[in-house]
Amino acid sequence: MDEKELENFRQAGRIASKVREDSKSLIMVDASLLDIAETTEQMIAEEGAKPAFPVNISINEIAAHYTPGAGSIEMLGEKDLVKIDIGVEFEGAIGDTAYTIDLGGENGNLVKASEEALEEALKMMKPGVAVGSIGGVIEEAIKKHGYRPIANLTGHMIKSNDLHAGVEIPNVKTDDPFELMEGDVFAVEPFATTGGGYVADLNQVEIYSLFAPAKIRMQQSRKIVEYALTNFGMLPFAERWVMKEFQSKVMVSMGLKELLKNHFIRAYPVLRESDGGMVAQSEHTIYISADGVEVLTK
Ligand code: CO
């Protein structure tokens, strides 16, 4: 990437980092999930950027892809283990960062396991390192604490306007020989759990992205696609964002269902740890430099 693009990635990372830290004051017992999500997304807008995806608020055994729906009255509970995953898009560049807050105070070690795994992974990453071996270091760091990494969730390469640009950083040891190269950008996100270490889809979906924007006959659905393309491009968006734009919630929810059935959009179902284990997550976006990493979301 050229210097200009790198500067944009640095700026996206700085904003993501600032919003991550500022958002921590919102995470408390009885706080409204919708308020946390909307306030955090507002913080991103105030920095002159856009959310690269809806703020994910995943609680306890929910690992990822949950964001409150329009009109949600859910609140954080006394013992909730809360994962906040924030994406910032600035001039196409993306910063992706996450943290876990343990409101009940009983999962401190689990949180520490995910944080240490992230630290250990970043320490070993440099050009020439195989992604499968990074998974090995993450796995070992988490198991040292007596927990399991989530094997079917991974970190991911990021490119401009592309949140998941193909290459994955596994959270367990694999024989994937893909080697890091100077100039690559990755989100590294270890998930530690008290369960068996696998997530499965729930039926619930709050997050979508355009898959194949094409000519659509149904007028209502076409309006949704046009709105999504203009405002979110190919990046993930929340059902509640679309509902804000259109008068009828029923129209939006039927439109999205229709678009999904016809493969115009894809769904990101809520992901739950299969054994109901508690889940902690830590995440940074990093740039592979000549001899190591530059943490963009430090
Ligand atoms: Co993330």
Concise synopsis of the structure shown:
The protein is built from 7 helices and 15 strands. With 298 residues, it is α+β, with helices and mostly antiparallel strands.
Describe the structure.
- This protein has 298 residues and is of the alpha+beta class.
- The strands form 4 sheets. Strands 7-6-8-14-15 form a 5-stranded antiparallel beta sheet.
- The radius of gyration is 19 Å and the shape is globular.
- The longest helix has 21 residues, at 3-23.
- The model has no long low-confidence stretch (mean pLDDT 96).
- It is 33% helix and 27% strand.
- The protein has 2 domains: 3-201 and 274-295, Creatinase/methionine aminopeptidase superfamily (Creatine Amidinohydrolase, Alpha-Beta Complex), CATH 3.90.230.10; 202-271, Winged helix-like DNA-binding domain superfamily/Winged helix DNA-binding domain (Arc Repressor Mutant, subunit A, Orthogonal Bundle), CATH 1.10.10.
- Cobalt (II) ion binds next to β4.
Radius of gyration in whole Å, from Cα?
19 Å
In total, how many domains does the architecture comprise? 2
Name given to the CATH architecture of the largest domain: Alpha-Beta Complex
What is the quaternary state of this protein? single chain
Low-confidence stretches: none
Number of helices: 7
Terminal CA distance reads 21 Å
What's the CATH C level of the largest domain?
Alpha Beta
CATH superfamily of the largest domain: Creatinase/methionine aminopeptidase superfamily
Mean pLDDT: 96
The coarse silhouette is globular
What is the SS-derived class? alpha+beta
* Major sheet: arrangement of strands: 7-6-8-14-15
Bound molecules: cobalt (II) ion
Counting DSSP E segments of at least 2 residues, the number of strands comes to 15
Strand proportion: 25-35%
SSE ordering: HHEEEEHHEEEEEEHEHHEEEE
Helix coverage percent: 25-40%
CATH fold node name of the largest domain:
Creatine Amidinohydrolase
Main beta sheet, described? 5 strands, antiparallel
